[in-house]
Design brief:
Length: 386
């Protein structure tokens, strides 16, 4: 608990007012815990549900600093915020999760990869480059072998900032700026584990999930829980993610994305120190949602039970290709009629191709049945423009 304050008196702030913020404040409503947001417009998803929404830019020093001065505890829904202001607020005694120095480490993929190397965390072999041109020159000299995966060191999000270079014919796809070049993993499945930790040191992990990506948008299209892997693989994934949380020594959530290789090895891909798309199903299928768990963790409350009570498949609702403008959910009523389908719309008023507009979690005692229903949902429910 934060000091001796009643929970309803704790001023908890979130940098970012998107869908993650919305789901955080909905979880906080059960406790009548006020959540405050800083983002550019109160029309963003969290705005309708927030007791106070401060209009500003979370990349601006003054906006972040002045926002933080009003709070008891501050957290994030996106990594790419003004770190300088967070460091100053930290020096002045504000409780911030994740701590600013750890946030700086995580939001730079180059520093993140070096950290894995230093800590002995298994990850794809990599090299760092100052620019796409420098990476191209290394490929042309034969210092790297195709195929490689290039990732921008900063500002990558929701599939942006990643380019797959399979051969010399793909060199035009190279991204500008400082980057990481990784060996392309021989992937069997992509997995994720979300770990929670509070300031008292209590740590729990949510069950391992399996992610299926949209090949065009590089966004999660389906998420399955439990993952279709052997129990020993699930245990190993949760142990690796829990170990990594200890290495980072942060409070809140850590979403750990993993590659399960065809030879059975697990590699850490990357992490996010906040609620994450790979945990949305927890609202409907786990005893404690990731959003409630994040609040418990940053307020140093006892962590909730993360276990799955019903198998689930989550479908991301992405804007359909070719549509820009005021959103229309075609087939919504038909999708809602499917037993076990739980629809979550984020409240974004404008759609565009592959924009995250909501998700549907299908719960069913049979994972196979949930998968079949989720495929029906994906066919019925389309995000288009009016």
């Amino acid at each position: 608990m934060i000091g001796n304050k009643e929970i309803t008196a704790i001023k908890t702030g979130i940098l970012g007012g998107g869908q993650l913020g919305k789901m955080l404040t909905l979880a906080a409503g059960n406790w009548h815990l006020p959540i405050y947001f800083l983002d550019e417009s109160p029309d963003y998803p969290a705005g309708l549900h927030a007791p106070e929404f401060f209009t500003g830019n979370f990349n601006d020093y003054e906006d972040v600093y002045e926002f933080g001065r009003k709070l008891d505890v501050l957290s994030i829904e996106i990594e790419h915020v003004n770190s300088e202001a967070l460091h100053q607020l930290w020096r002045e005694g504000l409780i911030i999760h994740p701590a600013p120095d750890k946030l700086d480490l995580i939001k730079d993929k180059g520093l993140q990869k070096n950290f894995y190397r230093e800590q002995g965390i298994p990850t794809a072999p990599f090299q760092l480059f100052n620019s796409g041109q420098e990476l191209a020159a290394a490929l042309e000299r034969g210092e790297l072998q195709y195929p490689i995966v290039q990732k921008s060191r900063t500002a990558g999000y929701d599939g942006k900032g990643v380019s797959v270079i399979r051969d010399a014919g793909d060199l035009h796809k190279l991204l500008p700026g400082p980057c990481v070049a990784e060996v392309m993993a021989d992937i069997d499945k992509e997995l994720a584990v979300i770990v929670a930790r509070n300031a008292s040191g209590q740590t729990v992990a949510f069950p391992t999930v399996e992610m299926v990506f949209n090949p065009e948008a590089n966004l999660v299209e389906f998420l399955l829980c439990p993952a279709r892997v052997p129990r020993e693989t699930e245990n190993a994934a949760e142990a690796l993610a829990t170990r990594l949380m200890g290495c980072f020594d942060i409070c809140g959530l850590l979403a750990v994305e993993l590659f399960l290789l065809k030879n059975g090895e697990l590699w850490v891909n990357e992490v996010a120190p906040r609620p994450h798309n790979s945990g949305h199903h927890t609202i409907d299928s786990c005893h404690t949602s990731q959003f409630e768990q994040h609040l418990r963790a940053i307020l140093d409350l006892p962590l909730g039970d993360p276990q799955l009570h019903t198998p689930a498949v989550m479908v991301n609702l992405l804007g359909e290709p070719g549509y820009h403008g005021p959103v229309h959910y075609h087939g919504l009523a038909s999708a809602m009629a499917i037993p076990g389908a739980k629809v979550h719309l984020y409240g974004k008023t404008e759609t565009r191709p592959f924009r995250k507009m909501g998700h549907v979690t299908v719960v069913d005692p049979s994972l196979d049945n949930a998968i079949e229903k989720a495929r029906v949902v994906q066919q019925l429910l389309k995000v288009v423009a009016r």
